Amino acid sequence: MENGGDGGGVPENANEHCPGTQSETAGKAEACAGCPNQQICATAPKGPDPDLLAIIERMNTVKHKILVLSGKGGVGKSTFSAQLSFALAEMDYQVGLLDIDICGPSIPKMLGLEGQGIHQSNLGWQPVYVESNLGVMSIGFMLPNQDDAVIWRGPRKNGLIKQFLKDVDWGDIDYLVVDAPPGTSDEHISIVQYLQIAGIDGAIIVTTPQQVSLIDVRKEINFCKKVGVPVLGVVENMSGLRQTISGLRFVKPSESGDIDATEWALNYIKDNAPELLSVVACSEIFDSSKGGAEKMCHEMGVPFLGKVPLIHSFARQLKREDHASLMRSVLQVLQLLKR
C-alpha cells in the first residue's frame, strides 16, 4: 500500500489518480472506473476499520501464511492445499488449513469432514481437527445441506473472509495454508489486503500443462506482482497419468460399444508375463510440447517447484507422501522463509 494523501491508503494495483480507500469518493470517482478494487472501495465503510486490529492480533499467533492460488478451476488446487497441509503436519509442524472458496468449498469433502460443524468458545471459532496438529476451517462446515448453493455478492463473501481471519482460534501454529478460489476476484483482493497487514509470506500457484490453464496462470502471477505478494513457486498438476498395469481397466471395442476385458487381460498377463503387473504405465494427458509450466516459469522469472502426475485411488494417496520429490521442493522453499 502507498499513502493516498487525505484519502488514505492506495492499493498497489489501483488506477492512476486513485482518491484513496478512505476517501468519501472511493470507488465512485471518475478515476475508479475499471479498477479491480472499485466495488470493495465503494461499499466499504470509511475511516479506520476496527476489525483490522483484531485480524493483526489473531494472526500474530501464526508464523507463516501461505496462499494457494490457481488461474482456473479444476486444476487440483484444493487437492494440493490438502497434500501440503498433511506434509507439513507429518513434519510435526502445527498447521491450519483455511478454505476461502466460498462458493465451492471442497476441503471438507476431501478430508472426510462432511457433517462437521463449527463450535464457538470464549476464544473464538474452533477449527475442525483432522489430525492433532492439523486444524481446518471452511464455509462447508456452516452449510446445513452440502448441496446448498452459496449465492453471495462480493461484500458478503469479504465479510466472511474477514470473520475467518479475526474469529478463528488457531492457537500458536507454524503454517496457515489458505486455499483460495480460482481467478482474481473480490476474495483474492480481500485476503491479500487483510493478510498483508499481518505479514503474508507468499503464494504457491497450481496449474496443469494445458495452454488454456497457463494463460490464466500468467494473469495470476501478474496479479501477485501487482499486489505485492511474493510468488513462492508454481506446481504443475495432472502432469501425465501414472498407473500400474494391475490397476488399469481394459476394454474391447465393438460395434455395440466397449466390452469390459479387464479380467481376461489381467489373467493373461498374470499367466504369461506376471512381472508386468507391477510396471507403471505413463501417458501424457495434455499437450506438453510447448514446455508447460516449467517454460512459463522461466519466462516470467518465478520458481518452478515440480510436477504432480495423476495417480489412481485419490482417497488413499491424499494422506500419503507419494509425491515426495515435489513435496520436498515445496517444503524446502517454505523452510527458507524467515522464521
What does this structure look like?
This protein is α/β, with parallel strands linked by helices and 339 residues long. The protein has 3 domains: 2-43, no CATH class; 51-239 and 287-335, Rossmann fold; 243-283, no CATH class. It contains 11 helices and 15 strands. Strands 3, 4, 7, 8, 9, 10, 11, 14 and 15 form a 9-stranded mixed beta sheet that branches. It has a two-stranded antiparallel sheet with strand order 1-2. β5 (119-121) and β6 (124-126) form a beta hairpin. α2 (50-59) packs across α5 (154-167), α5 (154-167) packs parallel to α6 (186-196) and α7 (211-227) packs parallel to α9.
Overview in brief:
The protein is an alpha/beta fold and about 350 residues long.
Helices and strands, in N-to-C order?
Answer: EEHHEHEHEEEEHEHEHEEEHEHEHH
Mean pLDDT: 83
User: How many DSSP-defined strands?
Assistant: 15
Helix and strand composition category = alpha/beta
